[in-house]
Amino acid sequence: MDKTVNQKAWFLILPVLVLVAFSAVVPLMTVVNYSVQDTFGDNEFFWAGLEWFEEMLGSDRLWNALGRQVLFSAIILAIEVPLGIFIALNMPKKGVWASVCLVLMSLPLLIPFNVVGTIWQIFGRVDIGLLGHTLAALGLDYNYTNDAFDAWATIIVMDVWHWTSLIALLCYAGLQSIPQAYYQAAKIDQASRWKTFRYIELPKMQGVLLIAVLLRFMDSFMIYTEPFVVTGGGPGNATTFLSIDLVKMAIGQFDLGPAAAFSIMYFLVILLVSWVFYTVMTNLDKEEAR
Amino acid sequence: MIGLRQNDGAGAMTLELDGVTKVVSGRTHIHPTHLTLERGTMNVLLGPTLSGKTTLMRLMAGLDVPNAGRVRWNGTDVTGMRVQDRKVAMVYQQFINYPSMSVYDNIASPLRLMGKSEAEVDRAVRKTSDMMKLTPLLSRKPLELSGGQQQRCALARALVKEAGLVLLDEPLANLDYKLREELRAEIPKIFEESGAIFVYATTEPEEALLLGGHTATLWEGRVTQFGPTPLVYRRPADATTARVFSDPPMNFVPCVKRGHRVSFGDHANAPADGPFAALPDGRYMAGFRANHLSLNAHSGSAVAFPCKVAVTEITGSESFLHLNHGADRWVGLVQGVHDLAPGTEVSVWLDPAHVYVFAEDGALVAPAAYALAA
Amino acid sequence: MARITLSKLAHSYFPNPRGEADYALKEMDHVWEDGGAYALLGSSGCGKTTLLNIISGLVRPSQGRVLFGDRDVTDAATAERNIAQVFQFPVVYDTMTVRDNLAFPLRNRGMDAAYVASRVDQIARMIGMEAELGRKARGLTADAKQKISLGRGMVREDVNAILFDEPLTVIDPHMKWELRTQLKSLHREFGHTMIYVTHDQTEALTFADKVVVMYDGRVVQMGTPQDLFDTPEHTFVGYFIGSPGMNLLEATVEGNRATVAGISLPLGASYGAQKGRVQIGIRPEFVSLTAGEGLPVTVRRIEDVGRHRIVRADFNGTEINAIAEEGTPLSPEMTRLAFAPDRIGVYADDWRVAPQGGQMGRAA
C-alpha cells in the first residue's frame, strides 16, 4: 500500500458534475450557439459569425441599459455598504437583544424576490399603498409609474431594504472575531472612535466586506425580478436594467441572435469583475497568512 | 489490519524512520531523517518553534505521508497506512476533549470505538483515571474543569487505548508554570507503567532533561543528534546541538591555539590544557554553558575574562549576569545574590575543563573534559 | 510617573456578592512606589489580571479607590489614566507601518509632527527596531510585534505606569531572554513604574525589584526575590517559588527542635508553643542526601537537569526533594536527608512563625 490518497473522491462528485453540466454548461453552450447564428424560425439556422456582437456593441440601446445598470449598482453599493457596516457596528454583541436583532435582520433576506417586488409595488401605490398614500397626503407628488425619479427612488429603497441585512450580518460576523485586547489597546492609546474603526475594525472586516461587496455587485448587476414587478421597466425605459432589456429582446422580440450575443457579453463582464475581486481577495489572504 | 498494540509480535517493538523526508511547496520541512525508537522508551524531540517537531510527529503517526523514505513498525512497512489503522495516540498543546461528553465518556470513547465490552471499558477507564487522578471528576464535562485537569483528561484518553505509540506535542505549554512542573513529574511514572513508545515534543531543554530517556535535537528540519538525554546534553555532536540544548543559551568565544597557549577572544590567554592539549594549532570556537562561569577562581586552572555587566537578574538564590565580553554577549548563572549595577567591570572565571571546542564550521572537535569524566 | 495607591480595594464579578468566596479580589491596601519594577505573581484565577485591569481602568472595582499620585482615578476612564498596557497577544495595528504604530498614541493627542518623529526614532532605537521602521506591522514575528507593543506603550513621556499582562507567553524560549533583559534595561534607563503580571516565577523574579505574590484574591507576600526565597511568609509562597518548591512536613515544634514522625531535628532558632496545624518547611537547595545523620527516606528518582540533580525521595508517603549540585557525589548508601538547621522555617496554619528571642533564624 503506497498511498493514503485515493481517487474515490471523484465518484462522489460525479452526480454534481452531471447536474451542473446539465443545468449550466449545456444551456451556456446553446446560447453561444445562438449568438453566432441567425434564424428566421422554422429551426433554420445560418451562420452569422460575429455580426450580432458587432451590432450589439454598436447599439445605443445596449449602452443605455448598461449605463443605467452601472449607475444603479454604484448607488446601491454606495448606500448599502456604509449602512450595513454602520448597522453591524451598532448591533448588540451579547445577550437576548443580540438574538432578536439577528432574527429581525435576517427576515428581509428570506422573502422571495417577486414577493418583495409585489410588497413594494403595493406599498408605493398612491391609492392603497401606505407609503404612496402618506407621501401624497404630505403633499408630495409621488408616482412611481409616471415619474422616472420616483421609480428609481422606489427601486433603490426597496433594494436597500431587501439586501442591507446581508452586508450587516457578514460584517457583524467579521467583527465578532476581534479579540477584546484590541479595543482595550485602542482605549489605552487614546484613539478616537473613528480611529478605532479605521485601524482595528475595518482591517479585520476586510475579508468579509470584500465578499459582501462582490455578492452585492453581482446580484445588483443581474437584478431582474424586483424592478420588473414594481415598474415593469418603466416609465418608458427609465428602469430598464440590463437583464430586463435582455429578456425583452430575447423573449419579447424573439431576437435570439442579438440576445444571445448580449448574454455572452453580460456574462463576460460579470466574470471579469468577479475575477478581479477574487484576485484581490486571495492576495489579501496571502498577506494575512504571512 | 496491522494493529500497533504493545503486545504485538515477539520481542522488540520499534519504530523506524528510514530516510523520511517532507517537502511542502518546494521547501524542505524535514530533511532525510533516520531514527529508530525502541519499545518502552521516552523520546524527546527538542527544538525551537518551526524546527519540524510537529511535522515529524505527524509523519510518525501517519497523519502525513513522507515524500521520500519509509516508516517501519516492527520491521513492517506502514508508510501508506492510514492513521486510523495504526493505534497511535496523540496529545496536543490545546486541551482537546469532546466538549459534550463527560470525562468518563471521553476516556471511554477510543475503547468503545474499538468495540470493547462495557465491562472491559469500565475497568480500563477506572484504571487510567486513577493513574491520572481524575476519579472524582468522572461525571463532569471537560469545560467545567481547570486547564490542568482538562489536559489530564486528554492524556487519559490517549493512554487508555494502550497504543504502541504515544505522541505528545508540547502538551504542557498552555499550563501554568507550577502545574506544568506537577504534570511533568507524573509523566515519567505513567510512561514507566505503560511500556509504549513515547515521543514528546518540547522547546525547553530543561523539560528534556527532566523527562530523561532519549533526546533528538532538531534544527530547521534536521535531527542534529539523537541519543540518551544526558549524553546529548553533555556531549553535543556540534555547535547547533549545543545551542539547542542549552538554556540559558550557550556562550561562544572564538579562540586560537598556538603552540602551548590558547588565546580567547581579544583578552584572555591561557595554557593549552584540558581539551586543547591534543589539538593541532588553529582557530576554533570555544563553547561553555552559563552555569560554569564563576565570580571566583574555584580551581587553579581557571581563566579570568574581564567583562562589563549589561544587566543582572536575581532569581532568589541565583543570579543571571548578562555580560559584554568585547563584542560578545554572554550569560552567566552564578550562585548567590549578586546585584551588580550595569556598567560594572567584573572578572569572571572559567575552568577549561568545562569548555567544548568546536571547529569553525560547528563540528565538535573536543568535548569538555568534565563531560568525559562524568 | 506616579505612585499608585490602592485603598480598601476589593472586587467581585457578581452584582450581589454574599461572602468572601464571591470576591475575586479580597479587600487590600497596597502602594506601588513611583518608578518601581513590580511583578504580580500567582497561578491562574488568583486575581492578578483583575487587579491589573482595575489599575488600568478596564474594570471598575466594586469597592475601594485607586489613586495615581494624589489624584483619585477610580472613576476615570482608561484613556485619562495615561497608562500603557502590553497584552499577552501582540496587539499591533496591522495596516500601519512600524513607525505609524509607534506614533499612534502621540498623534491621537495631537502632538506636533517633529516631536513625534524624534520620539519615534528614540523609542525605535531603544527596542532595537530602527531598521524596520518602514515595514508593515503585519508580517513581523511575534517577538517583534511585542516589542512594538512595548514601544507604543513607552512612546508617551508622561505615561504613569506600564502594565504587562503575561507578555512573553507567545515568545519562543530563546527570544524570551532577549526581551526580558531589554525590559530590565529599559526600566533602569527610564524609571517608569512597571507592573508585570505572570504565573512564571523565573520571569517574575528576574524582572522585578519587588515581587507581589497573590493567592486566592489576596496579597500573600511582597518582597525582593531574595526575601521570597529565603523567608517565605506563607506556605504558598514557599511552594510557588523555587523549582521544585519548598518541602513541607507535619511536625511538632518545641524550643529549638522539631519532631517529624518521631525523629528529632535541630532548628536554627527557638520557637514558642504553636497552635493550629504546624509544619516545617525547607527548600530543596538546603536538603542534602547523606549517609550520615538525618531523616530516613527511600530515593525514588534522581533527575539530571544539567547544572544540578534533583533527588526525589519519599518519607512515609510524603515527597521530599533535594537538590545536589553538579559534581556532588551521590551513592546508593545515602539513604538519609540532612536539613540545614538555619534554613528550616516553621509554619502554623500556613503562616510563618517568627522565632523567639534575638536570633533572626537565619545565619547571616
CATH architecture of the largest domain in chain C: 3-Layer(aba) Sandwich
Poorly predicted runs of 5 or more residues of chain C = 358-364
- Secondary-structure element series of chain A: HEEHHHHHHHHHHH
Largest interface: B-C, 40 and 43 residues
Domain count of chain A: 1
Number of helices of chain A: 12
Q: What count of domains describes the coordinates of chain C?
A: 2
> How many strand units of chain A?
2
* Strand runs of chain C, count: 22
CATH class of the largest domain in chain C: Alpha Beta
Which fold name corresponds to the CATH topology of the largest domain in chain C?
Rossmann fold
The average pLDDT score of chain A comes to 85
Describe the model:
The complex is a heterotrimer of chains A (290), B (374) and C (364). Chain A is 76% helix and 2% strand. A two-stranded antiparallel sheet of chain A has the order 1-2. Chain A has helices at 8-35, 51-58, 60-90, 96-110, 113-123, 130-137, 148-176, 180-188, 193-221, 225-231, 242-252, 256-289, and strands at 37-39, 45-47. Chain A contains twelve helices and two strands. In chain A, α3 (60-90) crosses α7 (148-176), α7 (148-176) packs across α9 (193-221) and α9 (193-221) runs antiparallel to α12 (256-289). Chain A has a single domain, classed as Orthogonal Bundle (MetI-like fold). Chain B has 374 residues and is α+β, with helices and mostly antiparallel strands. Chain B is built from nine helices and 21 strands. Chain B has helices at 53-61, 103-114, 118-131, 147-160, 177-194, 205-211, 229-234, 239-244, 369-373, and strands at 15-24, 27-37, 42-46, 68-73, 76-77, 88-91, 165-169, 197-202, 214-219, 222-228, 251-258, 261-264, 268-271, 282-288, 293-294, 303-314, 318-325, 328-335, 345-350, 356-358, 364-366. In chain B, the strands form four sheets. Chain B has a six-stranded mixed beta sheet with strand order 6-7-8-3-9-10, with helices on both faces. Chain B has a six-stranded antiparallel beta sheet with strand order 13-12-11-14-20-21, with no helix packed on it. The longest helix of chain B has 18 residues, at 177-194. Chain C is α+β, with helices and mostly antiparallel strands and 364 residues long. Chain C has two domains: 4-239, Rossmann fold (3-Layer(aba) Sandwich), CATH 3.40.50.300; 245-352, Nucleic acid-binding proteins (OB fold (Dihydrolipoamide Acetyltransferase, E2P)). Helices cover 24% and strands 34% of the residues of chain C. Chain C has nine helices and 22 strands. In chain C, the strands form six sheets. Chain C has a six-stranded mixed beta sheet, with helices on both faces. A four-stranded antiparallel beta sheet of chain C has the order 2-1-4-5, covered by helices on one side. A four-stranded antiparallel beta sheet of chain C has the order 11-14-21-22. In chain C, β17 (298-304) and β18 (308-315) form a beta hairpin. In chain C, α3 (98-108) crosses α4 and α3 runs parallel beside α5. Chain C is globular and about 75 Å long. Chain C starts with a strand and ends in a 12-residue tail after the last strand. The model of chain C is unreliable at 358-364 (pLDDT under 50). Chain B binds chain C through residues 48-49, 146-147, 176-179, 181, 185, 188, 203-206, 209-210, 212, 229-230, 233, 247-249, 289, 291, 310-311, 313-317, 320, 322, 331, 333, 337, 342, 370, and chain C through 43-44, 172-174, 177, 180-181, 184-185, 188, 199-202, 205-207, 224-226, 228-230, 239-245, 283, 285, 301, 303-307, 310, 312, 326-327.
